Amino acid sequence: MKNTTNYLILNQACADIVFTFAELTSFIVRTNSLGSQWFGGLLGLVTCKLFLEILVIPPVFSNWILVAIAVERFCAVTRPLISSPVSQHLKKTILVLWVWAIVSSTNVLVKGEVVKTKHYYYCDFSSEWINSHLILAAVNIALPLFVVAALYTIVCHKLWSREVPGEGPNQNEGQAEAINTARKVTRMMITIVVLYVMCWFPFDVLFALNVGGFVEISPNLHIFLIWLTISYSGINPYIYLTFSQKFRNHFRHIFRNFFRRIKIHNFLHYRSQSVDLEQL
Fold this sequence. Notes:
Blueprint: H1 4-31, H2 41-78, H3 85-88, H4 90-103, H5 106-111, E1 112-116, E2 121-125, H6 129-161, H7 169-211, H8 219-243, H9 245-279
Antiparallel strand pairs: 1-2
Helix pairs in contact: 1-2, 1-8, 2-4, 2-6, 2-7, 6-7, 7-8, 8-9
């Protein structure tokens, strides 16, 4: 399981977890009985900026991690005997993607502010943030999806038009198995990308139209869009379990060991209590 694609998936899962908890916290703050309130002072300003930053960084990272996975799959299919640049520099690739997600979200730190009204403080963006956000949204949303679509189009064409080479039944069987495995992994990752577009694209488009003043998002629609983006993180594991036998096997192995340790712990605890009672 310790291959390049799975390490990239692991990092995307970490980003999804951070975003899910941050978005749920934001949702609770915005829908509580007191309204979307914050607190003033320097501490309020710092925490507001950091909170808004946490809401932006994980989605940006997830977009580009999909690109990294697509590049890895592209190289694995088009150049199977040569390690991809992502595999050769995996740690550096992951570090660069995290750094880029943070750097490209610095406008949130600059434009995030605590707005004071007559009775309350609100954590929100300044109006000057809108234009820079739209530009970065095009760079961090539209561009990654375009690159991913182009790479997977080439990968699909290569995989499904490729004939199994070689001589002899054993060699053909090994080549066929390798191609089938590559097809399964490619199907899985394309499903993940399609799922990502279905869950995130409505939010991105409607939010951009709302910022531009073309549409107005009702509270119920806003709740639905937030739920849709969070559901992507929840559905992802089921996609991996559905497409990958290795994921299913290791998932069973982890839980089997977990419950076995619980039983052993309970048994030892029971035995220790029995010994203590016998001594008494």
